[in-house]
Amino acid sequence: MELTDTDVLVVVDMQNDFCDGGALPTADGHEVVPVINRVGRKFQNVVLTQDWHPEGHVSFASAHPGKKPLDTVEMPYGEQILWPDHVVQNTWGAEFHPDLNLPHAQLVIRKGYLKDVDSYSAFCMVDGATRTGLAGYFEERSIRRVFVAGCAIDYCVGGLATDAVKSGFDTYVIDDATASIDPAPDASADRAWREVSAAGVSRITSSDLD
To answer: Which one, out of 13, 28, 32, 40, has a CA that is 20 to 30 A from the CA of 76?
Structure first.
């Protein structure tokens, strides 16, 4: 697959808390870092997303007395799954993985920074109304194809990829550069792949970009 200056690689939430030793580690977050570094060198345009929660964020189980991680609560925007405290602003867990090496990335876009609404996709918060400006940035840069990697296909990668299609971009998720929360057969990762495929997202591997 030949890449051009109208392609962008979006590296989603490659942060310490989503890798080994973090508060909410993916199954293979640390393993995809070198793949992302290698793939990233092929792109002229690279964007990094960064989950950036304030203390007491609505997605934290600790913010809901009597609740524990993986419980759910009803919010004005719908059902909210609860997580351990993670990627709290200005903490080690919110920093990018130390081995991530993409110095030519042009944009870091933060999400999940509003206390009372969660965000998986870097296009829009889960309320469906609070947008980040990412689609406008792509349009200003004449981006046509969006390639997605990072953490995790089950949530933030899948959400961003689906929203990219909705925003009119040809969208690809790079399988071996993407981690998952639950990779077990027929678990959340499998469901996510089925959902993004049904939405029009293409599933590729890094070798397709060689």
So the answer is: 13
Q: Compute the Cα dihedral for 12, 132, 203, 147 and give only its sign.
A: negative
Token duo for residue 112: 């999940």
Active site residue 68: no
Which of 13, 17, 85, 118 is an active site residue? 13
3-state percent helix, strand, coil for the chain, nearest multiple of 5: 25, 25, 50
> Is 111 a residue of the active site?
yes
Q: Which residues pair with 12 in a beta bridge?
A: 49, 150
Q: Looking up tokens 């909705």, which residue turns up?
A: 166
| Whether pTM exceeds 0.90 | yes
118-159, pLDDT tens digit by residue?
999 999 999 998 999 999 999 999 999 999 999 999 999 999
- Is 156 marked active-site? yes
